[in-house]
Amino acid sequence: MEAKRKYAFEPDYAVPPGETLLEVTGSLDMTQKDLAARTGLAIQTLHRIFKGIQPITYETANRLELVTNVPANFWNRLEAQFQEQVAKFNERQRMAADIEWLQSIPTKELMERGFVEPLKDKVTLLREVLRFYGVSSVAAWSAVWKEPAVAARRSACFDSQPGPASAWIRQGELQAQAIACQPYDKNRFMAALEEIRTLTRDTPQVFEPEIKRLCAEAGVAVALVKEMKKVPWNGATKWLGPDKVMILLCLRGKGEDKFWFSFFHEAGHVLHDKKKDLFVNDGNCGDRSEERADKFATEFLIPAKYNSTIKDLRSRSEVIQLADELGIAPGIVAGRYQFLTKRWDYFKDLIRGLEWR
């Protein structure tokens, strides 16, 4: 997360360096005709410089240094500052037309999480939100988040709430970008998944840093971002580059069984799907890639051949015994039992809840 920035007053006008030039020549009792003769510049050229229509070039600055005894770098800095002010003024006018777009972005939540400053000026706030997204305009935001035919758009949430949806994913991107990873290696990632499966028996304090370490060594950045309002997603997968991929998770549902299923579901996307797509797990079925990811997570955690055994479980001790045999957390076995039998109250005390620290 970025450090908080301080904002100074920014005027809505720009003073051309030509005005300073007029003051300097006036103090030297030099007429505009004299200045033209001494610099070798046409009077019309000087008039355009005075009004800020024509810039002071490096060559002109050198001439002014000889004539006024004011260093050339002073005129160059003055011109650069003027052009910067003009650019910001023009940008502000352009952004003023896009203020309405902010209504589609969860700015309040982003402020509460420290990603955006709590600014009252709407144009400055718009600029901050664009900075958060890493884009230069609302049009650029649309090109990045709305126009590409990515898998995420198959989600009703992304179609109806692109602002909150993109904000959640962007938080994951920022977190993932800060994670140093080795180049992606499929075999190494599979080996990491085998080891991570055994970590399901540990507490979050143990498994969270280990997941991140093992995955980073295989080129996968695991980001954990708190769920946002209007974004009913369990996870997402996005390639950040040819050799680095992000798995983004939240604690929606809070049960360890759902968390681990979501993690291995996203791992399935990493292993089997195209790098160009952004995949989101909103719990809806019907898409081939999502069904494949579901099947991968199901088989990796508990192979389907155990389903009949799980449906016949009758006591907590039997659930724990089977979990020990499988080398996974009892809560995952309990979650599978609930899913298979639809008896959602059975063994729920074995499913540990996960909370944000």
UniProtKB/TrEMBL annotation:
Q: Which residues form the HTH cro/C1-type domain?
A: 27-75
For this protein, the record's Gene3D superfamilies field holds: lambda repressor-like DNA-binding domains
Do you know which InterPro entries this protein is assigned to?
Cro/C1-type_HTH (IPR001387), IrrE_HExxH (IPR010359), Lambda_DNA-bd_dom_sf (IPR010982)
Q: Which GO terms describe its molecular function?
A: DNA binding
Q: Which family does it belong to?
A: Belongs to the short-chain fatty acyl-CoA assimilation regulator (ScfR) family.
Give the protein's recorded name.
Plasmid maintenance system antidote protein VapI, contains XRE-type HTH domain
- Classification lineage: Bacteria, Pseudomonadati, Pseudomonadota, Gammaproteobacteria, Candidatus Kentrum
